[in-house]
Every structure is written in structure tokens, then in C-alpha cells.
């Protein structure tokens, strides 16, 4: 965190000054470790084993915050008797379909809900990264559940959890993660001791958790701990995702993502959502409790914002205009389709996949096989010049005279040359004022897309084709100003906020959304950001002039709420858990919820409220159900649906690992998304043969002085000067083993690529003892490429493409490689070296090992 | 800091008292700046300097463009150019601080490496050419329409609507404004292009 989010880290230091104990778990000793109380080196890709160990520690010692757990989580809920656990299935839950490599979830459901709307086959959900649609709300589950408040029923969630993690002992943590039992116990003790009525603990993660084939389950494990300890919905608690780009949260909420529409409405699927009603019901889940019950109003209001007068209740608000998914259309599938010649044109909008995405060679070969490419950036990035300067030109794989891709480079406006909002990592929108005009031809994306749309509509004005109606009926009349006819960002923000169609009055929040076409809302979760016609995101009341919640600085979605589910900061009766952790509470006199934050609860629903039998939607939420977006109002220790690779997290080895899974016969996540394409390959892992060809583990991360793929830092002289060269960090032991010298050169080889780097021999990397042997890990920054003031080989070239099944994010925080002294070969000799490694490792391009591990030895392992 | 001969000239010209008061250490011990990091450390030379933030024509309240912490920035403008970018002390997130990247924001936006004109590479060409912005926009619009024409899918094999093209892709959005992402998604959706992705997928 000190490296990648330095200014956010000041608050960790502030907490430390006030007595908090800081633990840093990382494969590499960083600037965060240097100021932490405890540094725990971990084998990359084993966090579920570590966190699972903490879960077991809590349950075994009964250290959970029992009152919180009983009232606010699904610990007491009884699960179907058809469910069977990975502990009984050697790494598989019940319902696995080997044909598709995905689960049928019926048996995971709560008792009596086996055929509830969320259950069923998940193959299609995997392809559409359906896990992402749960970012703002829970997955479907019926409202009425059977519970055992004594937590003794063998099939209640609490007991299932206990059995599931029983083998995640301190010994097992040591064996899997390489963390000593003493260090593990210190972490577990401190975490549990610092949670309860008076205290809260916080969990912070970044892409070190998400970029794994089990990334979503890492976060699930963290969430289980935080729920058990009562650390959710309370000040100083939570699971904090530190995201990597200025508005990556915003571009998820208002998604430039294939499977989502604004506000986490799913992009319709051709078979699942043929009609508007079926689409809405798939979001709303009739009969379910919670606020998602209003989905019809949000959906109708979005279509109304898109298609204005043309969108009427009679024509289902032009639902028919929306393009339909048929499967996986994610960025990695797209790149493989580019290589196969299926894609004509590609836009790059401030992203540099030639350096920043996994398998750089596949990215560049894909871009070299387009009809046209539009690059919009501040600088001439690698993704614009691959045809001229890329490594494949050196190897002869791309010949400029034979490369057909037509490239348009359009300069973009910087953050000071346009106005608009970023949504930072805590859901906070902050408006930026424009300082200066952009230079030359540089323009904002707002300008580019508005005028591109204008031109397209002009060119199609006379079209009678049905497919052009969606463009021609689009509301696209934003006011413009200035010499370049810049569209008004405030007008767009107003549309995002939503307005009353008849009067144009900006809505005050999503409670005003209607399903009859009388409201238009561009992104329902952002509704309120333009309440009263005031740009709430532009508020800048100084921190010196308001309390520590700082509710008048910017605007947070939803409803300017700073902590989600904050009803949980009060006890079931509505009183603060303690004076020290007072945040939101029930004011019995005024008969309303009040506090420092906007209560995440219906303002006048008393703690004693119990829903009538059969109630659904918001009415079904009881006065002590804080998790108002969940179908049962509870925090989920166990996820009966919504997570495709299991209702509970399970330790699987990374897709590429030198270690046999010590816990189960199943080696890696059996539901991971794999691509059998000639350009893609996976290095062998045990129990496959030849795993020793790639004996070392490598991981990548950021440097403080660089940013992502380097386009905004390797081009900036002070930053380039501070970190001028690509390097690899190795331990003294590994340097000795391989024959590397400090400040000399090394090259690293995977089944995809070979890259070179300067060697930094350092104690920051610790050889780990894992399952009786020493595992060496090396670390690389992933910022370098072949353009800019400082250049170097790209670490992401080493990775292949294997994805988490829930969100289709690639495993690019861990892989295996070989490390050799000296510089890499150049030209065709480089390809020969990779081919030689592939041959020795038994890699056949276009084939991958089966998802289900098959070896008899593995079975013994699992049972031991 | 030892100021050498200048100070001695002071002795002969202005007397002992002025000479002693000219010592930074004296001012530090007797004045309002006991840490010697402000007024006490000033020299005649530095006294004459003004901060770029003081003579700015205007100040824009902004946000750092790098990571998602969202540190507040103040962008100082002089003669239509960015003259300085500093942390915003009012921000409850950053309390005026910026990390090395945020502090380098001025160098980012004023970098001589920035491309400010449209560049165009023809198929099979070995070099870039210039192109007018409006011509480029027009050419891109034509190519979008051609790609839709070639790859449009009205219905699936069972006659269910698809309304889409898989011939167009887009990547990026996490460095852009919400308003921009909104228009990007809206326009691509209306043209039937659904292969829209950004950094959140990686
Ligand atoms: S100044 Fe540094 S920590 Fe703050 S937003 Fe910018 S990059 Fe992130």
C-alpha cells in the first residue's frame, strides 16, 4: 500500500500512531513492510490457506462476535441436505459438471430453496462474468429461510464452515504458505483481539488478490473473517479494495465492460433475457427481499435516458435495441478473435494492452491483424507503435510492410484540460474543474464520442434499416461550448443523475425512479449526485470545517453514504455497539435512524419491525437485517449462489505452481476459464510431468514511481529518472543457485516469452520452506515497455491467459518460469529458446491440461 | 547556511546589530521560526522570490489522475499554461499530500513527449503521416459503418434478436471521467458494439 497507494497509506500510519498493529502479508518486503509491525512473507497464490487458517482459529476458539454473527449473518441458516463439501469431494463441491467444468448450484441452496431462482447451471454465467453484477447487490436467494439460533444443527452454515476449514490448521498454513506457525498465530491473535464491541479491524487488498484464478474467493475469505468478527458496516472495519486507476471504480459503476450496463444492470443474454420482463425479473427476483426489488424502475429509467421519446411502456422502452450476449466477449476472448481475424476495428482509450495486459505477444499479434485501430492517448504508446518498434518486429513475426492494420493516433486531453468526475476507490465522486485548453488536436473523450456519434447519425440520417434505429433514436443532444464545441460534462452528469421527464427536474435520488417512463436515469446508483440541480460532486468544504466523516466533500454513491451497510454499526435494538464505535443508531424519541453518516436503512423502519409473512422487496427486510441488498438481509458467510466456484473458499494452487496441492487431490480451480488457442499455453504443474522445467515462482507489482503500463510515468522525466530500468529482485540464495550477479543481467523464460532484466540481489525476497522443500520467488515491476524515456522488457509478456471464473480476470500475480544469467537472445534465436522450453516441458500449443486433476497419487494426498 | 563575504560587507556598511540579525541562527533562536525552515532561513535572494502559486492567474480544483486514492490537487495557471500543481490541503482524503506521481502531474501535462497532432499509419506503411482531426473523425465513422455492415447479426439461429456487431472492440475507461464512460457505453451500445472492456477486467 505504501508503494502503490502512498497517500492513502498515511491513514494506516495515523492508525499505527494511535496504537493499531499493522500486519503486511506480501511475497516481497516493500516500503509497507518496512513500517509495519509484522511482515509475513507468503508464497504467491496461497492467501486462501492463510485466511482459511484465521477462520478456523476464530471458530475453534469461539472468538466470533456472537451477537453480531447470530443477528446479522446467515450463520444460523440451514443448508440443503443435498450439499456436500470439498472436504468430502477431495476438492469438489456437489454439483460439478465435468463436461462444462462448471457447477450446478441447486444443492448449495438453503434448505427448501433447492430450486430457487439463483440456482441452476452456471456455465453461461461464467462466460458473461455474471459475478460482477453482484458488485452493488447480493445474489438471488429466497427471503424465508430455516434457522437454528443455537448454531448446533449439523447443516447450519456455522457448522458447515467449521467442518470446511477444520484442516486449515497453523501447521497447514505453514506447509502451504511458508509462513511460520508463530507468525501466523500472532496475526490471528491480533486480528481477533482487535475486533468486537469496542474495536474494529480492517482488511485492505489490491490487485494482489484479484489477479488470480481464485481471486473472488480470496476476497470472500476476507469477508467471512470480517463478518465473523463483526467488522462490516462499522467505522474502522470493512474490506477495502484499493483500486489502481483514478476512476476505475467509476468505469465499473458506469461500465465500459461487455457484460454490464450502468448501475450493474446485466447486459441482456440472447437466450436468458429474450423479453424486457424476463430481463427485469432476472434482476429483481420476484419474491426476494431487499432493495433490488425496484429493478424495474431502474431498468426502465436507463432505457428512457438512452432512447428518450422513442422509449415507451408499449415498446418496452426500446429494450429490443440492446445488443445481446451469446457467451464470453471479454477482452482476452477478443484478443484471440483478433489473431483469428474475426475483429475489424479496435479502440484503445487510455489503455495500453501491449504492456499492461497478460500475454503481451498475443496482444500485439492481435493488434497486427486488424482492419483498423484507433488509439486515443496522451503519448505515443506501445499499443500504437507495435507494428514499427515491437519485439515481434525484431523476431520477424510482424513485418511492417506486411502488417495490414491501419492506425489512427488521436491525442487526448489530460485531466486538467477537461472537466468531469472521477470516482475514487471509496465510491467517492470528485468533480474536477478545467484549468487550461488542451493543446493542438488533443480532445476529451467526451468531445470525441459526442462528435463521432453526431457524424454517425448524420451519415445514417436517411437509413431505413432496423439496425440503425437505435443510433437514430438515441438522445444525443448535449449542449456544447467553446471553440471546439466541447459537450457539457455537467449536462451528462445531470442525465446520469436522472430527471423527471415531464419537467426536466433533476431527481433527488433513486427512490424517485419510476417504471412507467416518467423518469430517465443514466446510472441509478449515482442518482442524487445532481440533487436540487446542484453538482454535489463539486462540493469542497474543507476538512477543517466539518467532522471526520467529511460528508460535504464530494459525493459518494449510493445517496452520499460513506460506509455501506452501516445499520450494522448499531446492535439489533438499534443502539451503538459501544460509545467508542458509535456511528449510526436508532433515535427512539424521533423514531428514526440517525448518526454521523447517511443511514443505510429505511429512515423510519424501527429495529423491532418484522415483515409480514410472504413480504418481498424492501418490505421484506426486518428491522435488524442490515444487509439490505441481500435477498435474505444477512451477510453471507456461506454463498448459496452468486459465486460460481463454490459457496465457500477453498485453497487451490495457482494454475502454474511448482507445488502439489497439499489439501486436495484437485490441484487448481476446476472452474477456471481456459483458452485452448495456439498462441496460449500453460506451464505444467504437478502432478503433470515436466513441472521442474519452470522451477521458480514469479510475481509482479507496482513501483511507487511508475503507473501501470508506464504511459503516464515512463514519459514523465522526474518519474523516469527515479526508476530508470527494468529489474528483477532475487534472493541471495537464488542468485547463488542460478549464478546471478548483483547489477548484472538475467533473463526469465516462460512457455510464452523470454524477457531480460537487471538483477537486484536482495533480502527483500525470502526463500520459503513449503511442504518440506525450498521455493524461490522472484519479483518484477510490470511497468516497462519499448516506448518512452526509459524502456525495458515487459513482465506481462511472461504470463499466459487463465481466468477467474466469476469475473474473467486473468491470473497475473503468479506464474512459473526459469531464471538464467545473462541477456536474452535476440531475433529468431529468441523464438527458438521459447520453443525449446515448450518442447522440454511437453507444451503443445493450443492444448491445455484438463481442468480436473487426474492422478491416483492426488487422491491419497487429499485424504491424508 | 554560511553566506560568506556578503555578510562581511554587511558588517562594515550597516553595523553590528544588522550583522547579527542577518545570521539565520539568530533569527531562528529569537524569531517566530524555531525550526529554521521558514522566515529564519531566508536570504536576500530567496526573499525576493515569489512562489509560482502566488502570481497565478487562476487556480482549478482538481484530482490526481494516477491511482484511485483520489488526492485533491490545485492546478495553478499563468498565461494560459499550467504553472504548478500542488496537493489540496482542504482534502479530507489527502490533507494536501501528493506522492511522487501526483507531484509529477505538472510534468505529465506539460511533457514535451505529449502528442498534440493526429498521426496516421496506412496499411503496410513503414511510417506515420499527418492527418486533419476532422478527416480522421470522418474516416473512423466510415470504418465503423463498414464494420457493422460486414459483421452485423440481426438474430441467432433460432430467430431470437442479437442486434449486434462482433466486428468492433474497445478497451479503456478507468483513466477517464464518469461522463466520458457514460457516453462511450451509450454510443457503442446504440451502434450494437458490445465488446467494450476496460482496466477493471485486468
Ligand atoms: S498523489 Fe499518489 S496516492 Fe494520491 S491519487 Fe495520486 S498517485 Fe494516488
Describe this structure in words.
The complex is a heterodimer of chains A (864) and B (202). With 864 residues, chain A is α/β, with parallel strands linked by helices. Among the domains of chain A are: 10-91 and 130-242, Dimethylsulfoxide Reductase, domain 2 (3-Layer(aba) Sandwich), CATH 3.40.228; 673-841, Barwin-like endoglucanases, CATH 2.40.40. The two termini of chain A are 38 Å apart. Residues 856-864 of chain A have low confidence and may be disordered. Chain B is α+β, with helices and mostly antiparallel strands and 202 residues long. Helix content of chain B is 34%, strand content 22%. Chain B has helices at residues 5-21, 24-30, 44-47, 100-103, 105-109, 133-151, 178-190; strands spanning 58-63, 72-78, 81-87, 119-121, 129-130, 152-155, 161-171, 193-197. In chain B, the strands form 3 sheets. In chain B, strands 1-2-3 form a 3-stranded antiparallel beta sheet. Chain B has a 3-stranded mixed beta sheet with strand order 6-7-8. A two-stranded antiparallel ribbon of chain B has the order 4-5. In chain B, a hairpin with a 2-residue loop joins strand 2 (72-78) and strand 3. Chain B starts with a helix and ends in a 5-residue tail after the last strand. Chains A and B meet through helix 12, helix 15, strand 9, strand 10 and helix 18 of A and strand 1, strand 2, strand 3, helix 4 and helix 5 of B. Bound molecules: iron/sulfur cluster (SF4).
Amino acid at each position: 500500500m505504501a508503494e502503490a497507494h502512498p497517500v492513502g497509506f498515511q491513514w494506516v500510519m495515523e492508525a499505527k500512531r494511535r496504537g493499531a498493529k499493522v500486519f503486511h502479508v506480501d511475497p516481497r518486503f516493500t516500503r509497507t513492510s518496512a513500517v509495519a509491525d509484522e511482515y509475513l512473507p507468503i508464497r504467491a497464490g496461497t492467501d486462501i490457506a492463510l485466511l482459511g487458517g484465521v477462520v478456523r482459529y476464530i471458530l475453534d476458539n469461539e472468538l466470533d462476535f456472537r451477537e453480531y454473527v447470530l443477528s446479522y449473518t446467515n450463520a444460523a441458516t440451514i443448508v440443503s441436505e443435498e450439499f456436500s463439501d470439498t472436504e468430502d469431494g477431495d476438492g469438489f463441491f456437489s454439483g460439478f459438471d465435468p463436461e462444462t467444468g462448471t457447477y450446478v448450484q441447486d444443492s448449495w441452496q438453503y434448505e427448501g430453496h433447492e430450486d430457487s431462482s439463483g440456482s441452476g447451471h452456471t456455465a453461461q454465467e461464467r462466460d458473461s462474468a455474471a459475478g460482477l453484477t453482484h458488485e452493488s447487490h447480493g445474489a438471488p436467494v429466497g427471503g424465508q429461510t430455516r434457522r437454528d439460533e443455537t448454531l448446533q444443527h449439523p447443516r447450519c452454515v456455522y457448522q458447515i464452515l467449521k467442518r470446511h476449514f477444520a484442516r486449515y490448521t497453523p501447521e497447514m498454513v505453514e506447509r502451504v504458505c511458508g509462513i511460520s506457525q508463530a507468525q501466523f498465530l500472532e496475526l490471528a491473535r491480533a486480528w481477533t483481539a482487535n475486533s468486537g464491541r469496542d474495536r474494529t479491524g480492517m482488511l485492505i487488498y489490491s490487485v494482489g488478490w484479484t489477479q488470480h484464478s481464485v481471486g473472488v474467493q480470496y476476497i470472500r475469505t476476507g469477508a467471512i473473517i470480517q463478518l465473523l468478527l463483526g467488522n462490516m458496516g462499522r467505522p474502522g472495519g470493512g474490506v477495502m479494495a484499493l483500486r489502481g486507476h483514478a476512476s476505475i471504480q467509476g468505469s465499473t459503476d458506469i461500465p465500459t465492460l461487455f457484460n454490464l450496463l450502468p448501475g450493474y444492470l446485466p447486459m441482456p443474454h440472447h437466450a436468458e433475457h429474450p423479453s424486457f420482463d424476463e430481463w427485469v425479473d432476472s434482476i429483481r427476483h420476484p419474491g426476494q427481499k431487499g432493495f433490488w426489488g425496484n429493478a424495474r424502475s431502474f431498468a426502465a429509467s436507463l432505457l428512457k435516458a438512452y432512447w428518450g421519446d422513442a422509449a415507451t411502456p408499449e415498446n418496452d422502452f426500446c429494450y429490443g435495441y440492446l445488443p445481446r450476449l451469446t457467451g464470453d466477449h471479454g477482452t482476452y476472448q477478443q484478443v484471440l478473435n483478433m489473431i483469428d481475424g474475426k475483429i475489424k476495428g479496435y479502440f484503445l482509450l487510455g489503455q495500453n494492452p501491449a504492456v499492461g495486459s497478460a500475454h503481451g505477444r498475443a496482444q500485439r499479434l492481435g493488434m497486427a491483424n486488424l482492419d483498423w485501430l484507433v488509439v486515443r492517448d496522451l503519448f505515443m504508446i506501445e499499443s500504437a507503435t507495435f507494428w514499427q518498434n515491437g519485439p515481434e518486429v525484431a523476431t520477424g513475426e510482424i513485418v511492417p510492410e506486411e502488417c495490414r492494420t491501419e492506425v489512427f493516433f488521436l491525442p487526448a486531453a489530460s485531466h486538467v484540460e477537461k472537466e468531469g468526475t472521477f470516482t475514487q476507490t471509496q465510491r467517492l465522486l470528485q468533480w474536477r474543474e478545467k484549468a487550461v485548453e488542451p493543446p493542438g488536436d488533443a480532445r476529451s473523450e467526451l468531445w470525441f464520442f459526442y462528435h463521432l456519434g453526431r457524424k454517425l447519425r448524420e451519415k445514417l440520417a436517411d437509413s431505413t434499416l432496423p439496425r440503425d434505429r437505435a443510433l437514430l433514436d438515441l438522445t444525443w443532444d448535449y449542449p456544447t461550448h467553446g471553440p471546439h464545441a466541447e459537450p457539457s460534462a455537467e449536462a451528462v452528469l445531470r442525465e446520469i443523475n436522472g430527471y423527471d421527464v415531464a419537467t426536466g427536474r433533476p431527481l433527488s435520488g433513486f427512490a424517485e425512479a419510476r417504471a412507467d417512463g416518467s423518469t430517465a436515469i443514466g446510472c441509478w446508483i449515482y442518482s442524487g449526485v445532481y440533487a436540487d440541480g446542484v453538482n454535489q460532486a463539486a462540493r469542497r468544504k474543507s476538512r477543517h470545517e466539518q467532522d471526520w466523516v467529511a460528508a460535504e466533500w464530494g459525493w459518494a454513491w449510493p445517496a452520499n453514504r460513506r460506509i455501506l451497510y452501516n445499520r450494522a454499526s448499531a446492535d439489533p435494538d438499534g443502539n451503538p455497539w459501544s460509545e467508542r464505535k458509535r456511528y449510526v443508531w436508532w433515535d427512539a424519541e424521533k423514531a428514526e435512524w440517525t448518526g454521523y453518516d447517511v443511514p443505510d436503512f429505511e429512515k423510519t423502519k424501527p429495529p423491532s419491525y418484522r415483515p409480514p409473512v410472504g413480504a418481498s422487496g424492501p418490505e421484506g427486510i426486518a428491522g435488524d437485517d442490515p444487509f439490505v441488498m441481500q435477498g435474505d438481509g444477512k451477510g453471507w458467510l456461506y454463498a448459496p449462489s452468486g459465486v460460481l466456484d463454490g459457496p465457500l473458499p477453498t485453497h487451490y494452487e495457482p494454475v502454474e505452481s511448482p507445488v502439489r496441492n497439499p489439501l486436495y487431490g484437485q490441484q487448481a480451480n476446476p472452474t477456471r476459464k481456459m483458452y485452448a488457442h495456439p498462441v496460449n499455453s500453460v506451464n505444467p504443474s504437478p502432478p503433470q510431468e515436466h513441472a521442474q522445467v519452470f522451477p521458480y515462482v514469479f510475481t509482479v507489482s507496482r513501483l511507487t514511481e511508475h503507473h501501470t503500463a508506464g504511459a503516464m510515468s515512463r514519459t514523465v522525466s522526474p518519474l523516469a529518472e527515479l526508476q530508470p530500468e527494468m529489474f528483477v529482485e532475487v534472493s541471495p540464495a537464488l542468485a547463488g543457485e542460478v549464478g546471478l550477479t548483483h547489477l548484472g543481467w538475467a533473463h526469465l523464460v516462460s512457455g510464452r516469452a523470454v524477457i531480460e532484466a537487471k538483477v537486484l540481489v536482495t533480502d527483500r525476497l525470502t526463500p520459503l520452506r513449503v511442504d518440506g522443500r525450498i521455493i524461490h520467488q522472484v519479483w518484477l515491476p510490470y511497468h516497462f515497455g519499448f516506448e518512452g524515456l526509459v524502456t525495458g522488457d515487459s513482465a506481462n509478456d511472461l504470463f499466459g491467459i487463465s481466468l477467474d471464473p466469476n469475473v474473467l480476470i486473468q491470473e497475473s500475480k503468479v506464474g512459473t518460469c526459469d531464471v538464467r544469467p545473462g541477456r536474452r537472445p535476440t531475433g529468431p534465436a529468441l523464438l527458438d529458446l521459447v520453443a525449446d522450453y515448450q518442447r522440454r516441458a511437453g507444451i503443445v500449443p493450443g492444448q491445455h491440461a484438463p481442468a480436473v486433476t487426474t492422478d491416483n497419487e492426488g487422491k491419497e494426498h487429499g485424504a491424508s | 547556511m554560511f553566506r560568506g563575504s556578503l555578510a562581511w560587507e554587511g558588517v562594515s556598511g550597516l553595523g553590528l546589530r544588522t550583522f547579527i540579525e542577518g545570521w539565520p541562527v539568530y533569527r531562528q533562536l529569537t524569531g517566530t521560526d524555531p525550526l529554521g525552515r521558514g522566515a529564519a532561513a531566508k536570504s536576500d535572494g530567496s526573499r525576493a522570490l515569489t512562489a509560482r502559486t502566488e502570481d497565478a492567474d487562476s487556480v482549478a480544483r482538481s484530482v490526481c489522475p494516477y491511482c484511485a486514492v483520489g488526492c485533491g490537487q490545485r492546478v495553478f495557471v499563468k498565461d494560459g499554461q499550467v504553472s504548478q500543481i500542488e496537493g489540496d490541503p482542504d482534502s479530507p482524503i489527502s490533507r494536501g499530500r501528493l506522492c511522487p506521481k501526483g507531484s509529477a502531474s505538472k510534468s505529465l501535462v506539460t511533457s514535451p513527449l505529449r502528442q498534440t497532432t493526429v498521426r496516421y499509419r496506412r496499411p503496410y506503411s513503414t511510417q506515420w503521416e499527418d492527418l486533419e482531426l476532422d478527416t480522421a473523425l470522418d474516416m473512423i465513422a466510415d470504418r465503423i459503418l463498414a464494420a457493422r455492415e460486414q459483421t452485423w447479426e440481426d438474430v441467432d439461429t433460432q430467430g431470437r434478436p442479437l442486434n449486434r456487431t462482433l466486428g468492433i472492440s474497445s478497451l479503456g475507461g478507468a483513466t477517464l471521467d464518469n461522463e466520458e464512460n457514460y457516453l462511450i457505453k451509450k454510443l457503442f451500445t446504440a451502434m450494437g458494439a458490445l465488446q467494450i472492456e476496460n482496466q477493471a477486467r485486468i
